[in-house]
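Human: I'm a chemist; would you kindly supply sequence and structure tokens for a protein?

Assistant:
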Amino acid sequence: MGVRAIGNSIQYDFYYKRHRVRPSKPLRPTANNLKWAAGDLARIKDKIVRGEFSWWKEFPESGYCQQFEPQSTVREALLEWLISVKRGDLAFSTVYGYEKSVLHKLIPRLGHLRLDELTSEKLHEFTDSLDLAVKTKQETLIPLRHMVRRYKRLGMIREDPFASFQLEEYRPQRTDRKRALEETDVFSGKERLAIREHTQNPIWEFAIWTGLRVSELIALKWSRVDLERKRVEVCEARVLGHEKGPKTGTSVRFVKLLPPAERAIRRQRSVSRWLPGNYVWLNPNTGRRYHDDQTLRKELTRVCQSAGIPRKLPRFTRHTYASLMLGAGESLVWVSKQLGHSNIVITAERYVRFLPDAHENAGMHAVAKWGT
């Protein structure tokens, strides 16, 4: 046993799991290469003893790979990766998103492939079949990217299919219903009035006049409400039925209670202030806290139907708040902080259409104050 020249390659001769094996490496059998291969064989034997040896990494061209380490399918590799992720410390909502992508999109279309069959062409075929925006496609591919990176590190994937893969800009086809929802992403004055007249739940008035994210809204507790200072502290969120920290560091903030919001939350005091759990907003059908945003979405759908207005999504209350504040000329910096954005660029880009246009007296305030 040892190493020897075989044609234009060097053959390794050693025992693996009681089997004598003779894999080769495509090295010219020069004196220097044979000397290097002898040292390489010693390293391989040491790895075998320590249980760290991988046929796919050491001899990827050898037929021993399939004999001793049958290659996984994409399905098996993704499920193994998903199990390892669940054991980590990622946020529940992140793991849940990965699991949805793996089980409902990636495995049904790519799961049957062997790892060596996962090519950039297959990735393009997969993404082309998705009627999704580019950003959503990228998010769908995140678990697959992580899995490929892991198995490439283990030597079970020789070529990274993502190395030559690039998504093309794509705008998905929108149904009339989806288009209508996108165009009506704020509550008009008439719609806000109609909602007040068709529900006893003040949560919608409060949401419209504070701009809280839905996850922050349903996680709000009375211990975070300061009616004397007219503000609420936002430092928790509820996503998919789980309490978590806020979306970003700047999401931890104090939000001013404007008069309409203050009136709404004062109305709620008699309903939930002294109940166990300390939650401000309760599901009127159960008298318990909202489990997640889906419960709130169903409630708002019923209210909109009762009020005879187009269907709205709960997150539109946040957009409405931004439109009201910016449309009235409130400071962009102040509005950005109230919304919990990490910087005002996000606020400006997202709500630029609500910023007031310059009027004919624009600039005269500065002249009056600082001009000579």
User: Anything to note?
Assistant: The beta strands are 2-6, 9-16, 19-21, 24-25, 225-226, 231-234, 237-239, 242-244, 253-256. The radius of gyration is 30 Å. The chain has three domains: 2-68, 74-153, 180-354. The chain has a mean pLDDT of 87.
